[in-house]
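User: I'm putting together a teaching handout on how multi-component assemblies are represented. Below are the sequence lines for each component of a complex, exactly as they appear in our records. Could you produce the 3D structure of the whole assembly as structure tokens, so the students can see both representations side by side? Please keep the chain order the same as the input.
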Amino acid sequence: MSRRERPQISYFHYTRQRLRGSMEEVYKITVFGLRFFRYVFLPPYELGQVRKHLDDLGAKSLPLLTVVGVIMGLILALQSRPTLDRFGAGAFLPAMIALTIVRELGPVITALIVAGRVSSGIGAEVGSMKVTEQIDALEVSAVDPYNFLVVTRVLACIIILPLLTAYVDFLAIFGGFLAEWLSFNSSFQLYFTEVIQSLTFYDLLPGIGKTLAFGYIIGVIGAYQGFNTSRGTEGVGRAATTAVVLASLNIIFLDMVIIQLTFLLFGSGN
Amino acid sequence: MQNDNILIDVQDVWKSFDEHEVLKGITMRVHKGSSDVIVGRSGIGKSVLLKSIVGLLRPERGSIRVMDREVIGLKTRDLNKLRKHIGYVFQYAALYDSLTVRENLEFPLRKHTDADEEEITDRVFEQLRLVGLEDAVDRMPSELSGGMKKRIGLARAIIKRPSIVLYDEPTAGLDPITAREISELILNLEEQFGITSITVTHDLECARIIANRIYILDDGVFQHQGSYDELKSSVDPYTRAFFQVAV
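Assistant: Of course. Below is the structure of the complete assembly, with chains in the same order as your input.
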């Protein structure tokens, strides 16, 4: 073997190893995530923990989401108004904002922000419990750690994300009105009448519905990273970072799949 | 033939991690009411044995019988039933850091007993009195010193009045005075509640205070065993060296 060939062979092996490692990881996350659907129906039901996580994961995300929601609507209105005016379609702005927010931006932006705050939080918290033997302590206390730590968090994420999305949707649409009112002194009644008239059940259902899947992804990926933390505090940091990256990527990928499915089931809405 | 007096029976247990064999045929029997101590260098597999006994790790070969139940291969539900009779004191206490001291102690009672609020509170304060930390009841684990954490970990392990308690390095990281206090506390609690225990440590002073029998673990097997005085006067070079260096 000549010297020139060596790097190519090692690169091939490296790529193959990485690919194999990634596939194994996908398999493990899938198995870890699927366990949720069995455990969620089995007692004991840790409703107290679910309530606690709803507060921790959801209510504490409200300030950030409030700011993001209003600003998102403001920016969308400010950016879209000149373009719509150029085509003489300025009157359609409330409808455009409502559809864009409810169908796409609201669910995805909310999920990405919650992923950044919550998935990393779950990864770090569970990871810290792992490296300090608290998960072992649960197990020795005859408490199933998966049920106590994972099911409760994933369930809380699934419940809270649609509610947060509805909240952000409303604020973003209100932000759009704010921009219109500040620029043109638009009527509140006219704006929201047009918003309500433009939205149908088939706009709301997929938009809110897909957030259930986003919530599941955020919870499962955060908990998986935490559960598989190793190498002390360094590992905890890595678990938190990886959780955000993987959750965000999966949300965007899944959104693409859901959009296609929605178009197939309900049409494109044109 | 089963001896009713034996609570923990470990026979020819082998455990490895990847290619590295840690336990190579460990055998030990712990009698009811006995306090057995395993000593040995750091990283030699003492905690691995303890975690295998409580079912946190699964050995490749051998048999571990606890209270006449085979732990290896036991279903999770049955293992959890058995674990209700076992207390475990972790090396760094492993207190749930999102819960207060009170909630940490309440946790096993709420999960596994039908005790009402008054009984739970009484039991929590009784445990705190036993370990001398009543004032810490509403503190968070992050507000406790290392010695205080060990005491609370100990209180949590025995709050359900288990038949067996496993101690993983109960005095590690403590100053000699606090370490001695913890060792004496363990001895007192074991005598008071008739606890059978296995303690893993490399603190020979702790072993001297609490042990009925000491096992020296090296190279995956127990090289020697006996009482503290027997081992201290042993002519075996490794045992002599271990005791001389440690003392």
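A couple of points students might notice: The mean pLDDT of chain A is 91. The CA atoms of residues 247 and 253 of chain A lie 10 Å apart.
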